[in-house]
Amino acid sequence: MDSGDPKTGVVHDDAEKHLDFTPGEVPEFDTGTEKRLMRRIDWRLLPILGALYSISLIDRTNISNARVAGMAKDLGLTVGDRYAIALTMFFIPYFFFELPSNIVLRKVGSANWLSFIAFAWGTVMLGQGFVNSWQALTACRTLLGFFEAGFFPGCVYLATCWYIRFEVQKRLAAFYLLSVFVGGLASILAFGLMQMEGLSGIRGWRWIFIIEGLLTQVVAILAWFLIIDFPDKAERKGFLSPAEATFIANRIESDRGDSVPDELTWGRFFHHLGDWKLWTFSLMFASVTMPAYAFAYFSPVIIAGMGYSGGEANALAAPPACAAVFTAFGFAWLGDKYRVRAPVIAAQAIITIIGLMIVAYHTNHGVRYFGIFLGVMGCQGNIPAILAYQSNNIRLQSKRSVGSALQIGFGAIGGILASTTFMEKEAPYYRTGLWITAGLQFFILGALVACSAYFHLKNKQLDLGTLAKPIEGQVGFKYTL
């Protein structure tokens, strides 16, 4: 079977032999039927992914809530760089195991794999409630990173295979921002769990890990029954009728020509890694995840430095995340409606920079708290925006698998930077960390200028008929600016 040219990554006749249509044709589905079908897919796919990723974010960031609830004193985390080490060790396995996880995901099925790794990290989270040393906490964080590594890239890979290019940012924003909203409320949940202090002789910070670990296990079990597979498998699983499955394949084929999965071989793997765009998108993602993790890990500490108690600081860390849901989805809607990506990303990067500088330098605590709002709104909105930027400008499912794993793997680098540059000795202002974070937002702006210039040039060459070879190996494919 001719599975494609490993040098170009273009899929040849073997893909078309599996299709029940001619690429480019769209079957006779009226607009109302199409909308109802896509709405059914939305409601089946996005809420459960959002729920699980909500728990994922809670489980990786609730260490900041536990810290101000007494864990720092009990485990001696204020000594040297112990807290930074515990944070950093999460991201090392998180970086290395994302691509292998995406490969396993394709082979064993979405429901089987995503629910399994969610149950596994829930078990680790529960066990974290019983650690008695900072070393044991660090070991648990390492295991947590190992099991969580595959979840977010798997979700992005799965979701982008269901939708055409100018539907995808709203969908990514919907499932991601649901997790941001729930993750924001997690600070309030942590405040409530802290009130269990002493129940059954267990400290309040331990109850945060125990209860949230149990919650993860329950949702992971439910997820096995709810998560749908990739479009090419959905008919066999009974979710789509044959006509619906053909329609979904048709619209994806007409949009970008990669409805049929192409096998990820070592040749294709290294070929895809040779595309500079994947590395640029990945560096941009690392640059935006740094402020996202920084605010998640250090907002309670910054707020506590304004004179609030640990419980109050946890509660006050929630509103900025909740506000980010509305602004980020608004930007996502604009991006899909006007079919642009770079202007949306640039606007939110500028908002992030303004917020960071206010937090770093303003002397009024109320204004600094407002700066946290701006910073969180800008960076959280840019996470789905940058994911969509990559998704819109690459083709082939093998490349999506590699690209999503590489991009989100670089998100771990953002987490490491956030964990190590916000130094304990600089609390609660963290000016070094805030400046490095702002510098990365300037990098995003520069990368957008470079990519936009290149994309515009290639699109113009396509329009003039002077392009040497098709963009991304697909005749008529254009880059999204």
From TrEMBL:
InterPro entries cross-referenced by the UniProt entry: MFS, MFS_dom, MFS_trans_sf
One annotated Gene Ontology cellular component of this protein: membrane
A Pfam family assignment: MFS_1
Main subcellular location of this protein, as a coarse class: membrane
Segments traversing the membrane: 45-63, 83-99, 111-131, 143-164, 173-193, 205-227, 278-303, 315-335, 342-363, 369-389, 401-422, 434-455
Domain of life, per lineage: Eukaryota
Residues covered by the Major facilitator superfamily (MFS) profile domain: 45-464
Keywords: Membrane, Transmembrane, Transmembrane helix, Transport
Membrane topology: Multi-pass membrane protein
Compartments where found: Membrane
Gene Ontology MF term list: transmembrane transporter activity
Protein's UniProt name: MFS general substrate transporter
